[in-house]
Amino acid sequence: MAQTSLVIIRYGPYESCGVVDHRTFRLEGLQAVLKGCGHSCVLEKTPEWNQVELVVNGECVYECSLRDLEFGGDGQLDPICQEATEAVKNAYQQHQK
Predict the structure, then answer these.
(1) Which domains does the chain have, with CATH numbers?
(2) β-strand pairing of 19-21 with 39-45
(3) Is there a contact between 65 and 13 (Cβ–Cβ < 8 Å)?
(4) Each residue of 41-84: pLDDT tens digit?
């Protein structure tokens, strides 16, 4: 797998303390895990509430609710981050075949 693999993380707004906004606090662990595997991450805002999509080579390879991700942290113990990382890994393996 190339060390410069690009993963686009599309994320929508969510409500916290009565305010709806695009926030990246819940994406920190996901980004850390992906970067730890050698991927480059680009954040892209979308209008879809509570939505996270991981896009690899123009194809959505993983989706989840933003609110399911753990707040902050390094993502090592977050099962959603592990599932997402595996989906990205599988997408690159299939693309190389």
Answers:
(1) 5-96 (3.40.30)
(2) unpaired
(3) no
(4) 999 999 999 999 999 989 999 999 999 999 878 889 999 999 99
Q: Rounded to whole angstroms, how far apart are CA atoms 25 and 93?
A: 29
- d(CA 47, CA 82) in angstroms, rounded, equals 25
Could you tell me the pTM of the whole model?
0.89
Closest CA to 75 of 39, 27, 41: 27
Helix, strand and coil content of the chain, in percent to the nearest 5, comes to: 35, 35, 30
